[in-house]
Amino acid sequence: MADDVFTRDRSRLFSIAYRMLGSASDAEDVLQDGWLRYQRADHATIRSPEAFATTIVTRLCLDRLKSTRATREEYIGPWLPEPVLTAEIQTPQVAVERAESVTLAFLVLLETLSAEERAVFLLKDVFEYDHADIARMLGVSADNSRQLLHRAKARLADRRPRLSGSAESRRAAAERFARAFATGDEAALTALLAPDVGMWSDGGGKVTAARRPLRGRDQVRTFLVGLHRTALAAGLASDVSLWVEDVNSEPAVVIRVGSRIEAIFVMSIEEHAVTAIRAVRNPDKLARIQRQLSKRH
Question: What is the pTM of this model?
Fold first, then answer.
């Protein structure tokens, strides 16, 4: 059947598309378009269904990525990728390098690459295709593929984020953060936040969010305590629930008011301290994960 490869390899194809685009919704659209193109192809000429499906998905992502560049440049406030539940994009046995490649920090960093550099880097360094296969997928030479990889690695070399500690230790720190934030405990937040912690808030111009990154423990703590006090003043405290989920390979505090998810704070944690908080508030980027989490909470 024409759709067998898209069913059998859906997880891998989605993982590629999501890392290419930084959007789960766009990745879903690409897989649907790819399935339709695969159906219309002459299957008698397809030697490797898996390679052909990957080629279709990669090229569709390249087209979409180039068309979204201008939109992202005009984005109101910091742009962050659409968060996804970690289980959706990797198995428990996934290598650390592949887990790191899906953190929000890394996906933001990938925005500094050209579309072709991004494709080659992900296909070679993350999904371990060889240059000959990548060259066929992109319609370039193997030498050109190597040059694109070299340029991508040079751009990423000093800024590539790394996961620190174990998943269990990172989650434990996130749980402590959630309790401190829920109670407005300034002392506990001070102890948990790294001195140089940064915070980025993505509201997309659709909800209230800080238009510029916050830098340093004092700024971030003041902002977090202010959010807590605002909720108290508005009489929303009893309607707010918080819990920790694994999102993009890092622990995240999900903040729900009533039945609606208001924000997801994805946290980078090193040596039990929170070094970065990426707060996604744009409702368009929360709609998909809201549907998934509503089935469990």
Answer: 0.91
